[in-house]
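Structure ticket #2291
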Amino acid sequence: MPYNKLLNPENESDKDIRRQLGYINQLEINVAYPFLMKVYEDYDSNVIDKTTLY
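Resolution: structure written out below.
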């Protein structure tokens, strides 16, 4: 669930993505969440790869 992982990066299994989600949380970029959720959904659905998400 993308929103859960945005709020709780520790739920992400990939350490690189988890670190980036942690940075986003530290910066409190909440207005970007709708965009980030869509991008993360694309990653979860294999529409984009990890490099593109990253």
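Closing remark: The CA atoms of residues 6 and 12 lie 9 Å apart.
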